[in-house]
Amino acid sequence: MTRRGSRYRLDLALQGGGAHGAFTWGVLDRLLDDERIGIEAVSGASAGAMNAVVLLDGLAAGGRKGAREALREFWSRVARAASGSAAASALFADGGWVGAPMRWTLEWMGRFLGPTHFNPLDVNPLRDIVASVVDFDRLRATAGPGLFVSATNVHTGRLREFRRPEVTLDVVMASACLPMLFRAVTIEGEAYWDGGYLGNPSLLPLITESPAHDLLLVQINPSRRDAVPTTAAAIVDRVNEITFNASLVRELRTIALLQQVLEEDPVLPAGSPGRLFDQVAGLRLHRIDGGDLLAGFGVATQLQAGWPFVQRLHRLGFRAADDWLAGPAAHLGRRSSLDLSAYL
């Protein structure tokens, strides 16, 4: 993938959301099919981090075609694992509405037992799948788009963003570590949980460290639901959605406020972080919002990874990216197509 030969240089921010990450696969599949789009850097958390490392390693190995093949291979293996073992079935809760009671059973048992007792062997089929698809030595050694993988430090409660030369299999699994199901992943003596708690995905490193000025957010967690939940299950589901969107909402609000201030008074005070402000002022934000499309499936389907459902999500993502390329993408290189006024 020759970024300099592409018409548009684009940063990607990939949100996590379990099996709904297959929607993001569809988006990436369509973007890779468009020669105008060059990917400058990628930030991801949880399923977004998995999509990110598969994408960039695929690019390193075989360009656009290699990346598309790697993403398909990854999601097909996830689907096979979801129906191939008892442990994977517990993780993915494959099969229609079986997902809801399975998920609530896991959460209820997790409150009392925790992963040490409920999952004493710390079984995670995703680890083997990611390891089989991604060559992390090649990923770290190959020059290419920037990579930022988010994880939450259990001890400090702070976000850590791992850069491409630091990204290992453990880093990706830390980014996707749900603490009710898996033990914290230890990296350099520090314990980490799912990056979605504090950066889902993290936008700041894309703004400060990537030369691109166009940033495309691929969002898969619903921002809004019109109905007020009344049952315990629906309330917890909505709380989880709000929690895993909270860091993104804060970052978008901060960007909106900074851009508003810089537009009103472009003269920076002495001692201010000039480069950061310059990057924020020149930032053009775009979004492919899968939240509305995926909201009807419900939170339980984030644990449903059967191949028919994964393929359906891929088609939805592919069409959403196709619509974006035919419409809002016309603003690339010119202005934002995402209206940030709602976050002020």
Q: What are the key terms here?
A:
alpha/beta, eight-stranded mixed β-sheet, 12 helices, 8 strands, 50% helix
The sequence of SSEs as H and E is EHEHHHHHEEHEEHEHHEHH
Radius of gyration: 19 Å
Which stretches are poorly predicted, pLDDT < 50 over at least 5 residues? 85-104
Task: Give the amount of beta strand, in percent.
Answer: 5-15%
Instruction: Output the number of helix runs.
Output: 12
User: What is the typical, i.e. mean, pLDDT?
Assistant: 86
Helix-strand layout with pairing:
Blueprint: E1 8-14, H1 21-32, E2 37-44, H2 47-84, H3 86-92, H4 99-118, H5 125-133, H6 136-141, E3 146-153, E4 159-163, H7 169-175, E5 185-187, E6 190-194, H8 204-209, E7 214-219, H9 232-264, H10 274-282, E8 284-289, H11 291-295, H12 307-326
Parallel strand pairs: 1-2, 1-7, 2-3, 7-8
Antiparallel strand pairs: 3-4, 3-6, 5-6
Helix pairs in contact: 1-2, 1-12, 2-3, 2-5
Task: Describe the fold and architecture.
The protein is α/β, with parallel strands linked by helices and 344 residues long. Helix content is 50%, strand content 14%. It is built from 12 helices and 8 strands. Strands 1, 2, 3, 4, 5, 6, 7 and 8 form an 8-stranded mixed β-sheet that branches. The radius of gyration is 19 Å and the shape is globular.
A few lines on this structure:
The chain is α/β, with parallel strands linked by helices. It has helices spanning 21-32, 47-84, 86-92, 99-118, 125-133, 136-141, 169-175, 204-209, 232-264, 274-282, 291-295, 307-326; strands spanning 8-14, 37-44, 146-153, 159-163, 185-187, 190-194, 214-219, 284-289.
